Amino acid sequence: MLRGCLGCLEDPAICSLHPALTIPPPGPPVVPFLGNLHQVPSKKAFLKFQEWGRKHGAIVSVKMGPTDMVILNKAKDVRELFDKRGAIYSSRPANHIGTEVITRDDVHLLLMPYGQAWREQRRIYQAILSITAVGSLRPLQAAEAVLTLHQLSQSPEQYYDHVCRYSTAVILSSVFGVRGPKFHHRNIMRLYKVQDQFTAILDTAATPPVDVFSILKSLPNFLSPWRRWAYRIRTEQRQLYFELLQDVKDRRKRGIKRNCFMDQLLDESFRQKYSLDDEHIAYIGGALMEGGSDTMLSTLLLFLLAMVEYPHVLQKAQNHIDALCGTQRSPNFEDLARLPYIKCCVSEVLRWRPVAAGGIPHTLIQSTVMAPFECLKQRERWEAIHHDPECYDDPDRFIPERFEQNELGLKPGLNETDGIRKTYGFGAGGGSAWISPRRELSVIWAFDIRAGKDTRTGLHLNVEDVDDDIRTRWTDGFLNSTKTISRHFVSTFE
């Protein structure tokens, strides 16, 4: 679920084409000791990286204290590193807060360095997230979508709560086999609290640069509020994950098995094959929830924002659905193949507003060659890549039709050989996993979505008044979404 993320690659060895010919990439001026660290804001740091990219070019050199970093703003450069040299770019840099305080002992794939433990965990995720396994959860997603439509019809002003409940309930049921029928259900609220804090602390510059200046790790707790924050997150995370795991184990003792990922992991043959203990099983379940609930919620909220701001897109999508399904039934998974425009809309959401514009960094595990530039650390910015005017016509506008002309949404004449590939999509199985158009289909089949009232003036908003600016409309944190806005959900059958 790291599509649209910002990654970073570091290594003490210099990466060069010919050492005698290498030069540093251009970048902002540095100051002694800090480098550019003092210029990186604590919130939405990727906007500062974007500013530097516009000024200095596709490859930008930045110094974070004693550590060098290179920001990549072009797809061709990212492809050169991640597609052609992925074997040495799959690791993660040191993350004291993530891997030494919150999660420990190589239990969280997102933060793990490349190695044997990483490869073993990746094998486990590949085994449980097969197309067949994920596809078997479609009836569950459909049932939760129907409940969400009912809740929206009863209290449309609480749409945010209903959408949050949906995204979390699908994940809870899929992973642990438990329901979350209401937004204020205990498991729903606990998961969102833990997730919000975890993604917030992982955001760039949200905490002091303890990995840059290791002396900060030695400060006592009373001088380290960031460490106390991390300890609280660890405690709440473990309480939630292990309680949910214990509930599954207790249920299985009563002879009740369900079609969920935890039941698969707890099967004796699976545990023996992968040598899994409860610590790893609990965190695999937690990582699956983290990877699904927030990205699903963010994508749906951004989709709703786009439908409000671009009503002609909503009308066109509804016309396609009505022509196929009419009013007698809601669209289902099998209809997706005959509704290509809906898939174009979802692809455009993920390109237009990637949900993790400032993500988790990568690190080199050995020396490599890149361009004529000397580079110690690279960071690719998907938000900039997906808005590259050389690749996309009018990139800041929401235009699903670009994916009708080209499956990558590119300008005419560009294709995958130009370094572009689909870095956003519908998850495992091409539409059957967490990022699924099924929920968008249901919402726009049942409702017209319009701008609501301005919370300050009480007046109805016009379409041109809807704010979609990343600087003001996006939430802070590692994962980004639109802040709540007033929306009207009007039944299409009235």
UniProtKB/TrEMBL annotation:
The signal sequence is none
Q: Name one Pfam family in it.
A: p450
A GO term for molecular function? heme binding
Q: Name one GO biological process term.
A: mycotoxin biosynthetic process
Top-level lineage group: Eukaryota
Cited InterPro entries: Cyt_P450, Cyt_P450_E_grp-I, Cyt_P450_sf, Cytochrome_P450_fung
Which CDD domains does UniProt cross-reference here?
Answer: CYP64-like (cd11065)
* The UniProt record lists the keyword Iron: yes
Q: Which UniProt keywords apply?
A: Iron, Metal-binding, Monooxygenase, Oxidoreductase
Q: Which cofactor is essential here?
A: heme
The family this protein is said to belong to = Belongs to the cytochrome P450 family.
Name the UniProt record assigns to this protein: Cytochrome P450
